[in-house]
Amino acid sequence: MKFAFMTFSTPGLTLDENLDLVKQLGYDGLELRISVEHKHGVEFDTDAAARAVARRKSEDAGVPYCCVATSCSYADPAITQQSVDDTRCAVDLAADIGCDRLRVFGGLYPDATSRQEAVDRVVTSLTSLTGHAQSRNVVITVETHDAWCDPDDMAAVMAQVDHPSIAVNWDIMHPVHRGGKTMQQAFDILGPWIRHVHVHDGVMLDDGSCELRTIDEGTVDHGAALRLLHGMGYDGYVSGEWINWEPHEAHLPRELAALRELERNLGV
Length: 268
Fold this sequence. Notes:
CATH topology: TIM Barrel
Strand content: 15-25%
Number of domains: 1
Number of strands: 10
């Protein structure tokens, strides 16, 4: 497995500091979250020269950018077109810095919008992006998140788009906590489209929120997820998404050690 972390763990670190930290801790890649004022400095408005510098820094460090994570979402008609336009720009940003994965969301939608209307809008949006994504060698991955935690809903979108440049970012927590599926069920449904993976452990609270916990101290079976991914021959990244949690000095080395131990338990 290849393991990475998203810059939500390190919002105050520069790009150089993030790349150094990846190597220091033994991670394999870095996921850049954009549009949330992280200090890495890679954003929509980063110019061509700075993009080239970011790409060279990654190559010189031997640390790939495994994904560019955006907030783009399509189900809400009020923001659909802007998100499609932003996604097109994000594809260019990812390609320019040498990254072949982009994270987007299906998105929440108004009560007046039916599930089928939301599916249709997400399908239409993603289909409109296939040509550009393919031309830049970037795969747009839709996260199992917000209104798309149920893998059946995500599969309905993927089956209709049916294009190699559109895939799934399997956040292994949300289908279990919010989508009503077991880990096995989620994997069985999403397996054909999984091209990026997010991991984190936690427990659901009475108010409906999720409280992050150390891997294997929550209710998410990471061992099962890694076993399933290994069984399918998954060769992408498993990226830790730890938002507003402990200082990175505490959780980044500990969570990687837990993931590596689970991997060793697979006998690989």
